[in-house]
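SAMPLE LOG
Freezer: B-3
Tube label: C17
Construct: single chain, 399 aa
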Amino acid sequence: IYTLSLHDALPILAYRNGMDFFVKGYLTENNELMDYTSQTELVSSSIWTYDSRMHWHNHNIYYFADLGWNWEISEHHSVGLTYTAFSPIGSNWGKIEHDERVWQDGKLFDEGHTSTDNSYKTKMSHSVNAYYNGEIGKWKIDFSADYYGERAYTEMEGFTNGQLNASSNTTTKNRLLAEKLTVTAPVPYGTLTFGEEVSDVDRTNDFLQSGFSADNHIHQMTTTWSLYANYSLQVKKFSFKQGFDGRMSITDTNKTGNAGLNKPDYHVVIPNLSVSRKSDKWRHTLSYRGYRYNPPYGSLSSAVIYAGKYEYRTGNPYLQPQTHDIISWETNWKWMNIELQYDYIKNRYSDFHTIYDEANHPGVRLMDYRTTPTIQMYRLLLNASPKIGIWQLNYTASK
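STRUCTURE (predicted):
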């Protein structure tokens, strides 16, 4: 795998007179290359075997620019506003080339060269961020609000041995509104931080194709509410931290031209707890932490896209959030660190291959996403970074 990225910052202009006004921009060019080989076997009414060699090249040039204003009203209050524009420049494209051989029940079924060309025509996207930081007595307040809007258009053409045999185009519209409020409150012992956040996403995806699968229209609307609180306490050589993050999400998904699909609402409470003891040379920490990851919107799509003559891809609109319950023990001594971690995972995402349609598209395999109900993982990390004279050494081993 090879990745080349060129990143240049344009000059920053700033003016200060009790307020800050600034303009800055960035120009980036990315070239990504990847080569890999794979062998896959699928069993249906026949045994299908695939031997594939793939070359992938992606190229894009884009810029983004910030225009902002900050005002330090006093030593206790400040506000600010930033507008960001993001846009591709010129031709942005991706190309995938396959050399593939396909066997059916041990006999060569087909072989050839397949190429898939993608062109990306994303329009300028816009985002706005506003914030307030302040102190009222002994209370500290941190508030921010965001807007993001984007429109993108992608065209795909698939060729086999130089002949066009598949094409599609996808139009995507995204809109995000979000806000977050964090308050640090005075308490007799320790520190209490609490707050709330809300995000609202409206996403439309229109997929049109030349006949290899089916057209698809999805309108997804997701609103997430969250309340969180954390409390930390220091008692002599011990420190305690505990908190929670309670989230409630409502997702409404509509598919035009197909059976309607309503994704269920879900609610979750994510706790965290840690206890530490520190001496002159040693520090020990026992902690528990919960994590939750929502599936990417692209993984929820039910559109069947063309990835090669014998490979199609789709998503799974029924994917549930992935959760982690992590218990860890960490010990630090001077220049040595030891960490032992246990991770209990629910609904871990993984690729899954099946036969697409053996009657009408013989040999074509379909890749989608499935979840594994539970997985348990263990990790041991050892790190040593002693300093010998002018040399700072660093050794790491993990399992």
